[in-house]
Amino acid sequence: MALPRFTAAPARLPPGQRVYAVGDVHGCATRLAELHRLIAADCAARPVAAASLVHVGDYVDRGPDSRAVIEMLSAGPKPAGLPAVNLTGNHEQMLLKTLASLDPDDIEVWLANGGEETLASWGIDWNAPPEDWGAAFAAAELAFMRDLALMHRAGPYLFVHAGIRPGLALERQSRDDLLWIREPFLSSDADFGAVVVHGHTPVAAPLVRPNRIDIDTGAYLGGDLTCAILEEDRIGFLFA
Question: Which structural domains are found in the chain, ordered by start?
Answer without folding.
Answer: 6-239 (3.60.21.10)
